[in-house]
Amino acid sequence: MSTPTLTERQQKTLAFLREYLQSQGLPPTLREIAEALGFSSHSSAQACVESLVRKGVLERSPQHRGLRLPAGDTGYRGIAAANDLPLVGRVAAGSPILAEENIEAQLEVDPALFRPRADYLLRVVGLSMRDAGILDGDLLAVHKTATANDGQIVVARLDDEVTVKRLKHERDRLLLLPENPDFDPIEVDPRRHAFAIEGRYVGIIRRT
Asked: Is 95 known to be catalytic?
């Protein structure tokens, strides 16, 4: 089956719906769609959603907030079945971690295998976390959260870079600690750096 042609606005709306479903577990409201994407009114957002339904890349279900992505549709990256996890590769500078351009594939990995539940897999690059058993090429299972406790391994965004490190709170600063003596800790000064926690490490998959 050929992939439907979407306008730029339709592509952005579908990408927003996909990311919202993956992160929140339910569809956004028309108001949320309109506000996020700059539609002039709720009716404009609804018209765009209806066009996606007509083109078969979005489905309606009878319940409240009744939008869903078609099961088994592989025409678009990022359309996930209930037991799939998006695999994030290199993250484009400044883009949301689950933005479509960062997702390499959907893998058949049950999110419920991890505690807390995994929201995505991140491909590890480098050996800075070697002594924690996290190696280059491993797939890191990540629970999406904006907070973490001292000593937990996190996926952190520092300015435009995304890194995996152990979090340490220290007075008026944060440290991102490697698990390899060949690498130096990263000092985070909130006054100089844009910093955010993207998620917490909950497990690992190693392909042999």
From this structure: no
Residue 115 DSSP label: S
Active-site choice (44, 51, 144, 165): 165
Annotated catalytic, 23? no
What the chain holds in terms of domains, given with CATH numbers, is 1-71 (1.10.10.10), 107-205 (2.10.109.10)
Query: What is the Cα–Cα distance from 55 to 149, expressed in whole angstroms?
Result: 45
* Active-site option among 2, 128, 144, 168: 128
Q: 64 is written with which tokens?
A: 């409240």
* β 85-88/120-123 pair status: parallel
> What tokens appear for 193 in the block?
């750096």
Do 97 and 197 contact (CB within 8 A), yes or no? no
Q: In tens digits, what is the pLDDT along the chain, a chain of 208 residues?
A: 455 778 888 888 988 888 887 777 678 888 889 999 999 888 898 999 999 988 888 887 655 567 777 764 443 443 444 567 888 987 777 778 887 778 888 788 888 889 898 999 999 999 999 999 999 999 999 999 999 999 999 999 998 889 999 999 988 789 999 999 999 999 998 788 889 999 999 999 987 6
